[in-house]
Amino acid sequence: MDAKVAVFLQKIIVFTKVLSIFVPLFDSTYNNNSFFMYLNPEKKQEIFGKYGKSNTDTGSPESQIALFSYRINHLTEHLKSNHKDHSTEHALRIIIGKRRRLLDYLKEKDIEKYRSLIKDLSIRR
What we know:
2 domains, Helix Hairpins
């Protein structure tokens, strides 16, 4: 009987250690799972503030290109360790195409903004 109790107590100790690792991941104090989000609203506002006209300027081509570049860099890093993730690879190609079309539009409208944005984001074109 004592051996069974000892084994049971050891299992409880292991379980509490494991539980202490996973509870903070789902705790509401982590700002609605922002722990898992690579692109939270604060990061978006920072990108829009740096490349757009203001923090709320989400429509300018410069801010959209910068946001797409951030997402492209993130997905590229993801694909380096998950090379069989074909759905992410497909999404990456779609985002690259959108960024390319926006860059072509910006190049036609304002070549100086285009050149400065290419230099700031270090995009090879």
